Amino acid sequence: MLEIASNDISSSLLTQAKQCLTDKTALKIEGNNSRPKIANDQPVVVSLKEHTGVIQYEPSELVIKVRAGTPVTQIQTLLKQNNQQLGTDFPDYGNSTFGGAIATGQTGSGRPFLGAIRDQVLGLGIINGQAQALNFGGQVMKNVAGYDVSRLLCGSAGKYAIITDVTLKVVPLKNNITVELDAKADALTTIN
Questions:
Q1: Ramachandran category for residue 120: left, alpha or beta (phi over 0 → left; psi -120 to 50 → alpha)
Q2: CB distance 190 to 182 below 8 Å
Q3: For labeling, which of 34, 80, 85, 100 is most exposed (least CB within 10 Å)?
């Protein structure tokens, strides 16, 4: 079984946010900095690189909750071991994190078939602009009470909040079948 490093630095993140609020200083949020071109040049960097790990995962429930700094590839490997996969096509820039993927809102080429990242997010833990730790959404598919703040934060590039954890839908691993045939005539006959 894959071991994923677990490190909760929520209290440190909250302290940094409170200090920026007190000092009236803007901040830059980054994970593994896989998409530096979209970041703004702010003086204080709040790094979620060390904020990693699986908070909760029950394969039978088809839901996983991870910290925002957890690399997407690690979770994909964990899910594959349980014959599951992420519900959408997460982009992979080599070291993308879940917080970064949600903040950029980018979905890979499978979006027309699998849906957008925001469609897979069930809940988010955040630190807002007033340095308050808040949770939105839940861990069930039919959580529809109130505003869907987690969908609003998808693609917001960190302008409204620091994303600290993400709860996502997962789906059973899709089986692929590859058929190789020698001639076109054989292919048409065999497939029909």
A1: alpha
A2: no
A3: 80
- Cα 153 from Cα 163, distance rounded (Å): 8
Predicted confidence at residue 54, as pLDDT, reads 94
Distance in angstroms (rounded) separating the CA atoms of residues 138 and 141: 8
Q: Which residues pair with 46 in a beta bridge?
A: 29
pTM, rounded to two decimals: 0.80
Question: For residue 18, what pLDDT is reported?
Answer: 93
In Å, how far are 19, 42, 101, 127, 129 from 26, measured between CA atoms?
Answer: 10, 6, 22, 14, 10
Helix (H) or strand (E) holding 166: strand 161-172
Q: Which domains does the chain have, with CATH numbers?
A: 10-191 (3.30.465.10)
Q: Is 80 exceeded by the pLDDT of residue 61?
A: yes
Rounded CA gap, 17 and 186, in Å? 65
- SS3 of residue 86 by DSSP: strand
Quick one: which H or E segment has residue 63? strand 63-67
Overall average pLDDT of the 68-83 stretch:
92
